[in-house]
Amino acid sequence: MPLVNPDGYTYSITTDRMWRKNRANTTDSGCYGVDLNRNFNVSWGNVNGASLSQCSYNFCGTEAFSEPESRAIRDLALAYLPNIKLFMTLHSYGQLLLYPWGYTFDKAPKKGKLHGMARKIIGHTSSRGTYDFVFGQSSWVLYRATGTSDDYMYSKGVPFSYTLELPNENSFILPAMDIIPIGQQIWEALVCIIGDVVKTTKAKKFCNKRLVVATTSDNITISNWVRRSMPLEKAKEKIIKRYEKKQMSKLLLQQKLKQKREGARKKKMR
């Protein structure tokens, strides 16, 4: 899901750059919004890392899943469980990779597997230029927090459930020049992570590739996966040639079909 809080995101652009919650109405006319990552049904309402105060920035809502956004995530997950093997929610900031439990200092039932996969994930982010991630159990590395999405998914049987706190280490506001490079690095790391979880040869092959975007002579933007070792300009040239070849084949097929239909029409008229 590319975005789960559209109203809050829009408000952060138009009004309050640091807005965290959604924009739900509350019974307090001067306060709006619920912290969606405190609205899931794992130790919901426990005030460790959450609040029952409607004006708080981490207000957990009136009940678990009181918000349509958290319910949408829950319903989508329940529709595909038990086939979901990986859940990763992207947040900012801190350059952290966190796994359950967040609501308690107790260890998760299979913490060893969570920690082992976390180590692999950090390896992928580092190999793509995003270094110095700290990883570990959420309640120990960061703080205790209740009603979180990663705890909920893990409680429902998703074996690998993580929160990735994006760079940088010191601020929510990432310099504009870093947004696209970090986005690309994290995306490529995610592709590799999926390969590790799915464990199919096809999925793993994508880890050695990158998604390259190119523009054709008629100003059409195209993209494709290309070996990471291939120089960027050569990769773009290859993508364009592949696109042009495909378009030519499509055109020839259309011409053949047209000729065939025309021939059938003339034959019918005789």
UniProtKB/TrEMBL annotation:
It comes from Halocaridina rubra (Hawaiian red shrimp). The active site is at 165 (proton donor/acceptor). This is Peptidase M14 domain-containing protein. Residues 1-197 form the Peptidase M14 domain. PANTHER family: FI02848P-RELATED, PROTEASE FAMILY M14 CARBOXYPEPTIDASE A,B. SMART domains: Zn_pept (SM00631). Transmembrane segments: none annotated. Belongs to the peptidase M14 family. PROSITE patterns: PEPTIDASE_M14.
